[in-house]
Specification:
With about 260 residues, this protein is of the alpha+beta class. About 35% of the residues lie in helices and about 25% in strands. A hairpin with a 3-residue loop joins strand 12 and strand 13.
């Protein structure tokens, strides 16, 4: 299920999560050519998750589409880009050396369909076609998925180039299709949020209430885990992945591919 070995340093009362129930991933951005002659990853967006790119090494760009149209952001070592749900994002790796640490809100949701590739109408209008286009089991298939996403991305970009209103209509149409394709996943998303990020917030409020009551007993339940680094061997949307799954995510009710 994972590339990492989890080593308990202290006995755990309950599975220890990443801070704030996030998902953390090391990423080597794809360095193969896309349909528009660039090198990089798969254009996609998230319904529920704010995301941060922290540049570990190399340089490159992120191409973005949102309600305001197309934009391009330069990435350099140790810079960090944060973007909210609804931002279509595409990593560009011109020097083929871009490596990132990715921090994602709501651990588990990106593994449960929250991320939707920017496919064109052919793949977005039908559940079976969408499922076929999203599923990959090798890097070769991931490149095919990416290239289909780039084609859809370029269609929306071209719509904005023809006019703001036409671009916004094309973007909204894509959002609507994506919402329809993921309609059966939302109960699971709700469960992940409630048992992840919301549970972490509730635990923090319980600790605050205990402190207000003069109790520090909860500090006796401290715990630690060491997650050993693995290989970049998982085909992702944007590149080759090495995920840092936390113990809670690795539990039976956690993320499954």
């Amino acid at each position: 299920m994972t590339d990492q070995t989890l080593t308990p340093i202290n006995a755990a009362v309950a599975p220890l999560r990443m801070p704030g129930a996030t998902l953390v991933t090391r990423l080597k951005v794809y360095d193969t050519e896309t349909p528009d002659g660039q090198y990089g990853g798969t254009p996609h967006f998230h319904f529920m998750c704010t995301e941060m790119y922290f540049v570990v090494a190399g340089s490159g760009h992120v191409e973005l589409i949102d309600h305001n149209g197309f934009s391009r952001v330069d990435l350099y070592p140790h810079s960090a880009l944060i973007f909210s749900p609804g931002t279509i994002h595409r990593l560009i790796n011109p020097n083929r050396d871009l490596e990132l640490l990715v921090v994602m809100q709501n651990s588990g949701l990106p593994e449960r369909g929250d991320n939707v590739v920017c496919f064109g109408e052919e793949w977005m209008a039908d559940d079976a076609k969408f499922a076929e286009a999203m599923k990959v089991s090798s890097f070769e298939e991931a490149y095919v998925r990416r290239d289909r996403g780039v084609e859809g991305f370029l269609q929306i970009k071209a719509a904005f180039e023809r006019g703001e209103e036409e671009g916004r209509q094309a973007l909204q149409h894509f959002y609507d299709l994506a919402a329809d394709r993921t309609r059966n996943l939302r109960a699971n998303w709700r469960s992940i949020v409630e048992n992840g990020a919301q549970a972490e917030v509730n635990a923090s409020l319980d600790h605050l209430a205990a402190l207000d009551a003069g109790s520090t007993d909860f500090l006796a339940n401290s715990q630690q885990y060491l997650i050993h680094a693995g290989e970049y061997n998982k085909p992702g949307f944007c590149g080759k992945l090495n995920r840092y799954f936390d113990p809670a995510t690795l539990s039976p009710e956690g993320v499954k591919q």
